Amino acid sequence: MRRASDEQKQELPPSSSQQRYESHPPGDRPDQEPQRSHHSYTDQGGEESEDYESEEQLQQRILTAALKFVPAHGWTADAIAEGAKSLGLSVAAAGMFHTDGSELILHFVSQCNSELSNLLEQQQKLVQLGQAEKKKTDQFLRDAVEARLRMLIPYIEKWPQAVSILLLPHNIPASLNLLTSMVDDMWHYAGDQSTDINWYTRRAVLAGIYNTTELVMMQDSSSDFEETWHFLENRIADAMTMGHTAKQVQSTGEALVQGLMGAAVTVKNLAGLNQRR
Amino acid sequence: MVCAFLVNSQQLFLCLTGYERKWNLQTEQTSLRFYSTGMTLDNINKPDIDRIIRVDHAGEYGANRIYAGQMAVLGRTTVGPVIQQMWNQEKDHLKKFNELMVTFRVRPTILLPFWNVAGFALGAGTALLGKEGAMACTVAVEESISAHYNNQMRTLMEEDPEKYKELLQIIKKFRDDELEHHDIGLDHDAELAPAYSLLKTAIQIGCKAAIFLSERI
């Protein structure tokens, strides 16, 4: 029953993908993998949920393996096929995914974000234990963005291709989601506690900084991307200045309002209008 | 054959929704316990708690602005101290929700600047109808908010009263405070306000709309 349903799954891929009807030997038997703490999308146990859970895990493993082949093959179904082959599976396994390599890229981005989260979490623990100095906001953000962008370095040749794929309409919800949660993470660990409109402006500004720095990085040919980090430093400084200026404008505005209120009360007093009702 | 097809469509459906959910999950590695009863960032029903905290935060923020508007007009009348006292309690409520918002990493509603202006306008506008108008506004708003808190408490209790015990206690206390404000409003001649029932209905419709929007946007 399971093998029949596996083969049926092979016939489900979208029409754009090539139809490969090689019977795929279940090389690594999925249900012998150790159960990781993974969400099961079907409650009831039994064959279906095990199959589903292991299929998703299998896909994750294939995509992770495929990353090694991205520098050579780009973000394509070829890389996924090579990845599947390297795990001892048939290249037909690449039929499980779209041909444009979307899932591979999204998987990679999601992995990088998780790595970043872990890194920031560890740094936070060190600070809490008193083993590290608490960084100032601009330094923290600079380091976080730099750390995240450095994860792109092994793939930087093919990254422009990835960015253009992520901008395809059917990928935009997922990629936007990943971007917003990454930026939210960065601000959270930077110690942001805003609960007003600043919550949005800060994240929007940081997303802008991240995206522009990413673009600069793709065109940077200096050694160890020095120019990129320099650019990043300047953008963060700009953002900080903007924040300070905004605060100054606000306090000036408040002072002005106070002044006007005082003047109004004075005039009312002089005109005798200010009497208790 | 049909059976296999049905199994496939179910799995395909799960597969598709699974894909979306996969990209949405940024697995939190943190396991800090925020409350002694074990309501942590990992084990809560995040979408529901998000909504609850977001809408409550917006509500308290709006209530603050309403009282601010009322004080701006009636601050120096005899009813000033009463309004001030109710306002102080709302400030405490807002502070609590600010803390909860940071603790559970909840996004505030983007409509806050709008509630800022609308709340102040409502408070000042009803206060210009006289102290009865201000009290009528208080009665209407507090009644809406208490009913809303009751609904939330029901939802949380249906889900897991033990896990959400602390949050339930907070909401219960705030609901009791709001009911107290409601009664104070009635004591201070709210029902003598011009077009009382019309005013009250209109304000309560506005509150329902505000709650609906703040939960989602």
From TrEMBL, chain A:
Domain (COQ9 C-terminal) ranges? 172-243
Gene3D superfamilies per the record?
Answer: Tetracycline Repressor, domain 2
Q: Where is this region: Disordered?
A: 1-57
Naming one, the record's GO cellular component terms include: mitochondrial inner membrane
Q: State a single Gene Ontology molecular function.
A: lipid binding
The cellular location(s) given in this protein's UniProt record come to:
Mitochondrion
Q: What are its GO biological-process terms?
A: ubiquinone biosynthetic process
Give me the stretches of Acidic residues compositional bias.
Answer: 45-56
Q: Does the keyword Transit peptide apply?
A: yes
What keywords appear on the UniProt entry?
Lipid-binding, Mitochondrion, Transit peptide, Ubiquinone biosynthesis
What residue stretches are annotated with the Ubiquinone biosynthesis protein COQ9 HTH domain?
A: 55-85
Residue ranges annotated as coiled coil are: none
Q: Please note every region of biased composition (Basic and acidic residues).
A: 1-10, 21-36
Pathway this chain belongs to: Cofactor biosynthesis; ubiquinone biosynthesis
Q: Does the keyword RNA-binding apply?
A: no
InterPro entries assigned: COQ9_C, COQ9_HTH, Ubiq_biosynth_COQ9
| Function recorded in the entry | Membrane-associated protein that warps the membrane surface to access and bind aromatic isoprenes with high specificity, including ubiquinone (CoQ) isoprene intermediates and presents them directly to Coq7, therefore facilitating the Coq7-mediated hydroxylase step. Participates in the biosynthesis of coenzyme Q, also named ubiquinone, an essential lipid-soluble electron transporter for aerobic cellular respiration.
Give the family per the record: Belongs to the COQ9 family.
Subunit note = Homodimer. Heterodimer; two heterodimers of COQ7:COQ9 come together on the same side of the lipid pseudo-bilayer and form a curved tetramer with a hydrophobic surface suitable for membrane interaction. These two tetramers assemble into a soluble octamer with a pseudo-bilayer of lipids captured within. Interacts with COQ7; this interaction allows ubiquinone (CoQ) isoprene intermediates presentation to COQ7 and facilitates the COQ7-mediated hydroxylase step.
Q: What is this protein called?
A: Ubiquinone biosynthesis protein
TrEMBL record, chain B:
Q: PANTHER family attached here?
A: 5-DEMETHOXYUBIQUINONE HYDROXYLASE, MITOCHONDRIAL, COENZYME Q10 BIOSYNTHESIS PROTEIN 7
Family annotation (HAMAP family) = COQ7
Q: Which SUPFAM superfamilies match?
A: Ferritin-like
Q: Which UniProt keywords apply?
A: Iron, Membrane, Metal-binding, Mitochondrion, Mitochondrion inner membrane, Monooxygenase, Oxidoreductase, Ubiquinone biosynthesis
| Its biological purpose | Catalyzes the hydroxylation of 2-polyprenyl-3-methyl-6-methoxy-1,4-benzoquinol (DMQH2) during ubiquinone biosynthesis. Has also a structural role in the COQ enzyme complex, stabilizing other COQ polypeptides. Involved in lifespan determination in a ubiquinone-independent manner.
Pathway in which the depicted protein is active: Cofactor biosynthesis; ubiquinone biosynthesis
- Localization, UniProt: Mitochondrion inner membrane
Name-wise, this protein is 5-demethoxyubiquinone hydroxylase, mitochondrial
Family, per the entry?
Belongs to the COQ7 family.
Quickly give the catalysed reaction: a 5-methoxy-2-methyl-3-(all-trans-polyprenyl)benzene-1,4-diol + AH2 + O2 = a 3-demethylubiquinol + A + H2O
Entry GO MF terms: 3-demethoxyubiquinol 3-hydroxylase activity; 3-demethoxyubiquinone 3-hydroxylase (NADH) activity; metal ion binding
EC number(s) given by UniProt? 1.14.99.60
User: Which InterPro entries does the record cross-reference, listed alphabetically?
Assistant: Ferritin-like_SF, Ubq_synth_Coq7
- Report the cofactor remark: Binds 2 iron ions per subunit.
On whether DNA damage is a keyword of this UniProt record, the answer is no
Q: How does it assemble?
A: Component of a multi-subunit COQ enzyme complex, composed of at least COQ3, COQ4, COQ5, COQ6, COQ7 and COQ9. Interacts with ADCK4 and COQ6. Interacts with COQ9.
Q: Which gene encodes it?
A: COQ7
Gene source species: Pelodiscus sinensis
One GO biological-process annotation of the entry reads: regulation of gene expression
Q: What class of enzyme is it?
A: oxidoreductase
Q: How does it sit in the membrane?
A: Peripheral membrane protein
What residues bind Fe cation 1, as annotated? E60, E90, H93, E178
